[in-house]
Amino acid sequence: MNDDDAIPSSPPPRRQPWNKGKLIGAKPPLRASHVWSIRTKLQLEGRTRDLALFNLAIDSELRGCDVVAVCVDDVAPNGDTLDRATVRQKKTGRPVRFELTEQTRQAIDEYLRMTSRRPGEFLFAGRGGDGDGLTTRQYARLVGQWIASIGLDQLKFGTHSPNQGDADLPADWQPTRRATVIGPYEDREHGSIPWHRD
Question: CA-to-CA distance for 11 and 101, rounded, in angstroms?
Fold first, then answer.
């Protein structure tokens, strides 16, 4: 066998990691100035659904999968938006109770008047509008558009406020207000009930 006939062995091409150059993990929530900028932009553009969706996401601090799963019954069972709502989290299975601000209630009421969504339906319809709700992918695209519309990097911010112990957050980051998680050992009137092991 000649040296000319030998095929030089080259290392296989290296695959680029899926997360190269991307921020992974928890994202810090939008600052108050960012929230007001996005709200103003959505109002000026007349994007009623997006304004209601954005306001609900900010008030509830829910994950995207939970925001898109909100039904009309959860926030407006009698046609008018409630002051407080309770939604069961998909990830933990625990109910979360949160307050809806006046501007969120107005935005949702306006959206319901325009779309005539009924109890039993998802609050935010998807593309087909035939009863299916928004998908988490559609919601993520909208969040990215909202954040980019005010000149921010959409990879660095989110609407979901993570737990304080989550990694990858700036050292000076502090959560604003948390939604109340109603657990099995918590009484709504009297607060936490101590749990003892026997």
Answer: 59
Q: From residue 90, give the alpha-carbon distance in Å to each of 84, 95, 144, 168.
A: 19, 9, 22, 23
pTM: 0.68
Among candidates 45, 9, 19, which has minimal Cα distance to 149?
45
Range 34-58 burial, b when 16+ CB lie within 10 A, else e: bbebbbebbeeeebbbbbbbbbbbb
- The alpha helices in the chain, defined as continuous H runs, are 32-44, 48-60, 64-67, 72-75, 102-115, 136-149
Specify the CATH number of the domain 32-161.
1.10.443.10
Closest CA to 74 of 40, 28, 124: 124
pLDDT in tens, 21-52: 766 666 777 888 999 999 999 999 999 999 99
* Phi-psi label, residue 125: left if phi above 0, alpha if psi -120 to 50, beta otherwise: beta
